[in-house]
Amino acid sequence: MTVDLRSDTVTHPTPAMREAMHHAELGDDVFGDDPTVNALEERAAQLLGKEAAVFLASGTMGNLVAQLAHLARGQESIAGASTHVVTYEQAGHAVIVGTSVRQMRENPDGTWDLEQLREAFRDPTDVHEPITGLVILENTYAAVMARPLSVQYTRTIAAIAHERGVPLHIDGARFFNAVVALGVAPAELAAPADSVTFCLSKGLACPIGSVLVGSREYIAKARRGRKLVGGGMRQVGVLAAAGLVALSDGPNGTVKRLAEDHANARRLAEGLAEMDGIESPGGLLQPTPGRLDPSRAVTNFVIFKVRRDRAAFLDALSSRGILMVDYPHGTVRAVTHYGVTAQDIETVLSACSAALRETPASAAADPATTHQER
Questions:
Q1: What residues contact residue 65 under an 8 Å CB cut-off, 6+ apart?
Q2: N or C: which end of the chain has fewer CB within 10 A?
Q3: Is the pTM of this model over 0.85?
Q4: Is the pLDDT of residue 145 over 80?
Q5: Cα 123 to chain center, whole Å?
Q6: DSSP string over 206-235
Q7: Looking at the chain, which residues constitute the CATH 3.90.1150.10 domain(s)?
Q8: Is beta strand 301-306 parallel, antiparallel or unpaired with respect to 325-327?
């Protein structure tokens, strides 16, 4: 048996999703006549309280298309220095959108200093400076162990942006994890933003896809951007059908069950924190050194360090059927998701304990590597 905690992208569609995909009514989405895609877009827009939505292949495409629809070439966005848009999207903002990013320093909870944010906006009357055209938040914030950003904080950031005539985009790859962790309605958390992306293919367990929501005028621009980057899809209702199941009310929907992933992550963090050889990941993830703090595991990420050779520790886990990944700054990441049970977590903890016992201490930290996905 394998317990795969490398990412929530490894989920397989639920039986209800597979059934819906098999029977999906299809059309040509570029012509706008795939009824299943249209239904998914309507459902997504309704859930997040926006006028319209567009179905996309991935979260990275969602962020790219979002920027294309908001920004003119030569403009600048404001975003966190550790966000996915800045760090893990191959500088698509520069290569494709033709814009720069002014990077904000994050606090350990993923928030920014508000005065520094106000100072980050460029002076549009100074011909030497780019014009600020967008503020981007990531929610949940992966760099701080996938912590959610609150409704009030989102409102505050939006108010500052809107005072300057600048829209707010939320990179919500795990937006519904934030919704569930905060105990709020999706529309409430999305309300302050001008656009929001969210992934279907992570905790919601769909095989492919993300959705971008916003005003009708904005989404019309986004559709042009999607076509520009090769994202026009044809009989894609076979995939959108899974998204409709994920966002549905009732027992087949996969939004509310995210609470199980969060509980499993907390249990995993609690068990790891009791083990000799497991410690704080440090940095933004947990500023205080020493023991891993389980309270940092609010959604479905657990990130920690081992006082052992990290590669050997991961190999020892893999030999026992437990998969995790190395993460930046010498850490290890485990992500809970659909298909991982509470009993699986106990199996993982037993395997971690055994792996620690047989793994030699590390003479020096191994190079930080990354494993990111959108």
A1: 54, 56, 212, 222, 225, 226, 229, 231
A2: N
A3: yes
A4: yes
A5: 31
A6: -SS-EEEEE-HHHHHHHHHHHHHTT---SS
A7: 257-358
A8: unpaired
- Position 368 scores a pLDDT of 46
- Given a cut of 90, whether residue 366 has pLDDT beyond it is no
For residue 146, give both structure tokens: 């996938």
Percent of the chain at pLDDT > 70 equals 97
Cα-Cα-Cα-Cα dihedral sign, residues 184, 187, 191, 193: positive
SS (H, E, C) 21-46: HHCCCCCCCCCCCCHHHHHHHHHHHH
Structurally, at CATH architecture level, domain 13-246 sits in 3-Layer(aba) Sandwich (3.40)
User: 112 pairs with which residues across the strands?
Assistant: 106
- pLDDT-derived band of residue 374, with 50, 70 and 90 as boundaries? low
Grouping H, G, I as helix, E, B as strand and the rest as coil, residue 289 is: coil
CATH 3.40.640.10 boundaries in the chain = 13-246
If phi > 0 it is left, if psi is from -120 to 50 it is alpha, else beta; for residue 345 that is: alpha
Q: Averaged over 256-279, what is the pLDDT?
A: 97
